[in-house]
User: What shape does this take?
Amino acid sequence: MSNKPTSAGGGSTLAMTVNNVGFLLDRLGQDCSPLQYLRELTQNGIEAIERTGKPGQIIWDVDWTAYDLGDSKVQKLCVIDTGDGMTGEEMLVLINQLSSSGTVQSFTSNYGIGAKIAAATRNPHGVIYQSWKDSEGAMIQLEKDPETGEYGLHQWELEDGTFSHYIQLDDDIKPAEIDQHGTKVILLGNSDFESTIEAPSNAVSPSRWISKYLNTRYFKFPDNIKIKAREGWTSPRTDSDRNVLRALIGQKSYLDSHAVTSGVKRLETANVHWWILKDEKSISCNSGYIESAGHVAALYQNELYDRLTARAGVARLQLFGVLFGMRHVVLYAEPLAINGNALTTNTARTALLLNGEELPWADWAFEFRKDMPKELVDFISKKSAAGTEKDHVKSIKERLKGIMDLYKVSRYMPKPHGDYLSDTSSSVKVGLAPGSGTESKGGKGSGNRVGNSSKGPRDGEVGNIYHLFQKRDGVQCDKTNSDPFPIVKWVSIEDGTRDENDIEDKAAKYLQDQNTLMINADFRVFKDMTARLCREKEFTEGINLQRVIEDIVHGWFEQALNNPRL
Assistant: This one.
């Protein structure tokens, strides 16, 4: 055996191998989301069809052939594509070798491991591949050995007594959708008796779980590929109203057809696609197969990541400045691989990474809020105007005027050549900027001017001599005059200013980035106090006692909640 030297004075490199591949696959499978295999097998089908250069289709369905011919009548899930197909020899390489792919591998495209990890680890009893190429069919079965824990190909005994890891198939079992080329993948689950068409535990929309997952995972599908998924499989096949194949469309098509208006906002490192949805029943009734109400996600290569809905989605929409009407607003942030930024996914394709780190959602939100599209500003203002709550700030300040000096807290704004040094996280006090030559001025603020550490007193200079060696980190800034009281918004379900997923059964929420206090008018304590006082007061003709007392209660609770954010 000859070894090719790696350098002038060295020998060949000993290639790394993998010990206990079964454990490695199981460990990687834990990093995948429970339904990740739907994405992986769909994407494999898309790429196989695109290699043909012709239109095609992908169908998620019950394996009716096995169901009709078998004795157990257990429904197994399968996916059929009309891609370029594989020979038996090709399947030995592409399916049984980890990180082997039918397309070019790269950090920004196909890794060659997704389906093997996501599907095989959740179907240890077997994943059957039946594929046709040039009208010739072959089959392999990837499975987990229950004794050794290793994954590999099932060995078949042929009629002549020999053994093979793939067998040739008769055309009688070729799916009707496949002509000369295509592939069918069958998921066997954990045993012969497990139905793999049934939704896994905790899957949303159990009767439409495949449609819901793929529609919300993909922003859009290729124009020349039709994708369908079975729904209502428990109903008779003759029931065409319930037992049907639903055409999948992806989020973009749905949002575009149900939006009042939409657009794209360019940020420094991302494009934010936004939609304002129509006020219609479909926001609720279509949620079974699509994400039909307000939410936020990241967009990359026509797929959606980090999708947040319900309470988490409301919180992120508010971070972007959408304080009202969150149910009708959708935001997709599309990161841009510019200025040397490396944009890719993790191995399991469950998260997007920018330069190896999580996406900078807070930075994007701040930039978006500063220059929000006019249509969104007008929409939010209109929704905000629906509230009729009285402004209590003036009366609160009047009651507190005797102690207002306690509310005068120094605040700082970042500035490239500012006099002060501030920690942007506000977790430490503002301090001195390094390399200065002036004495501290201004006395009692929580910030310190840039100054020479060897001359004169400095703000915050207390304790022993070692404080002189304090590390000076942070960004330079200047003092800014600001109202210590936050902007207050009373919100409720009744007037449409509060989403049902927002601060449910909580008194309030403070949005620090926007210095805004959202107070829940539906909070039971406010309601109970108002009701109690109404019972204790006598009715006066011509006066809406409920409204008067409610306003007083809100005013006092607002004062209690309106603590200055230091």
In short: Confidence is low (pLDDT under 50) at residues 99-112, 426-462. The longest helix spans residues 36-52. The chain is about 25% helix and 20% strand. The two ends are 73 Å apart (CA to CA).
